Amino acid sequence: MPKKTVEDIDVKGKRVLLRVDFNVPITENSGVISDDSRIRASLPTIKYLVDHKAKVIICSHVGRPAGKVVENLRMAPTARRLSELMGLPVSMASDCIGQEVESKIGALKEGDVLILENLRFHPEEEANDADFAQKLARLADIYVDDAFSTAHRNHASIVGVAKYLPAVAGLLMEKELKVMGKLLHNPERPWACLIGGAKGSDKIGLLQNMLKKVDMLLVGGGMAATFLKAQGYEVGHSLVDDDQLDLARKLLQEAKDWKVPFLLPVDALVAQEIKAGASTRVVPTTSIPAGSHIVDIGPQSIELFCSKLGRCRTIIWNGPMGICEIPQFAQGTRSIARFLSTRNATTIIGGGSSAEVVQAMGLADKMTHVSTGGGASLKFLEGITLPGVEVLLDKK
Ligand code: ADP
Ligand code: MG
Questions:
Q1: 148-196 pLDDT, tens per residue?
Q2: Beta-strand relationship, 267-271 and 293-297
Q3: Is the minimum distance from the CB of 323 to ligand 1 under 6 angstroms?
């Protein structure tokens, strides 16, 4: 069932609490935003609300401050960037709830934009605390969710707040749901899912459901080490989710039972240290030296993955193939991005880091869709109703 959007309600003169995902990479100490694509992605919604004379109250999380104030994770650089992009003043509150915020909101005029401080400075946000959700809700008359990428999280500003206010989708949320919904209902086959990155504890469970949907699974990045270790191989000091090893083994078995090809890297770039300039070498994944770290997939794996993906009509990619923040370890990720950009197939890129690489290489236009959501897009494509979507009002 499609969800109501900002276009279905009257926002004029209303206080609108707009949840966005402005979780942008901010360079420590300098406050420079190295990739503002998440801010740009919500501009249509913000512009719509400003043009329709709402009082716009923007809230978001940045990073993982774990319930404390972290100076480097303040919203101020984001407010400045948004102001530049909009060509309008954007004011900043010193918190996301409380007296000062309420009086600032009281002074807003139609079309004004205010950004609240990082939601995750309060532990109640991630705990979906009802009292905190209520405090957020009393700031506004209407709740608009444009944060597709966090819609899989059961947090106060995503789920809790929607209990107390009329809740509708922003334009970015609407677009994500449309594009992904289409894919979910009628994917062109063969359909492959390529997973990398570091959040093994989030993603390995997802793979289990994906296995039943897709025609091929490929795993690279930090996740691969967990699967290699699960098969009994040495992985040195590589990132491993030890509590996921049983699940990884189960998954490998299920892939066999379901006859779904499950590809892991056959070679890897290993380094003695995770830092730029470290000495590296390429080794087969069956013989990772004990003291080393897997930092990228190797050239043979790139070739193998590309040749398999080349036969697919639909490709979902989530998570980098290596520690792509360090250019020396970004070859695997960049090669996959370049390859996918040349395909005449449906290519959906999700995930913070993988989407950033695609943006930075200027390849976003060459993909079918670069989703702002990583975990959220995977969950959605598994057919799971996202809690943040469920709470929005239905169109009819
Ligand atoms: P995304 O943001 O694309 O959804 P994740 O958040 O799961 O992906 O993971 C991104 C992180 O994974 C990046 O910071 C990257 O450095 C890290 N990563 C990728 N490969 C490895 C690896 N082999 N070892 C450690 N970290 C890795
Ligand atoms: Mg990430």
A1: 999 999 999 999 999 999 999 999 999 999 988 887 788 899 999 999 9
A2: antiparallel
A3: yes
The amino acid at residue 52 is H
User: Matching CATH topology for 6-172 and 179-381?
Assistant: yes
Distance CA 246, CA 252 (A): 10
Q: And the tokens for 385?
A: 């109703």
As its CATH architecture, domain 6-172 has: 3-Layer(aba) Sandwich (3.40)
Determine the Cα–Cα distance for residues 140 and 105; give it in Å rounded to an integer: 9
The CA 324 to ligand 1 mean position distance, Å, reads: 7
Cβ count within 10 A of residue 106: 9
Among 239, 323, 328, 367, which residue has the most ligand 1 atoms within 8 Å of its CB, making it the best to mutate? 323
- The token duo for 92 is 């900043």
pLDDT given for residue 383 in this prediction:
81
Q: Which residues are catalytic?
A: 38, 199, 352, 375
Instruction: Specify the ligand 1 atom closest to the Cα of 225.
Output: 23
Residue 193: in which H helix or E strand, if any?
strand 191-195
Q: CA-to-CA distance for 163 and 387, rounded, in angstroms?
A: 12
Question: Strand pairing partners for 346?
Answer: 314
Q: What is the C-alpha separation between 231 and 134, in angstroms, rounded?
A: 48
Ligand 1 centroid–CA 61 distance in Å is 20
Write down the domain spans for the chain. 6-172, 179-381
- Collapse the DSSP code of 348 into the 3-class scheme (helix H, G, I; strand E, B; otherwise coil) and give the result: strand
Closest Cα to atom 5 of ligand 1: 197
Cα-Cα-Cα-Cα torsion 97, 99, 102, 103, nearest 10 degrees, comes to: -150
Of 81, 277, 308, 107, whose CA–CA distance to 215 is shortest? 308
pLDDT tens-digit map of 233-249: 999 999 999 999 999 99
Atom in ligand 1 nearest the alpha carbon of residue 202: 7
* Residue-wise pLDDT tens digits, 82-100: 999 999 999 999 999 999 9
The single-letter DSSP state of residue 101 is H
For the 179-381 domain, the top CATH level (class) is: alpha beta
Ligand 1 pocket: which of 202, 292, 324, 378 to mutate (most atoms <8 Å of CB)?
324
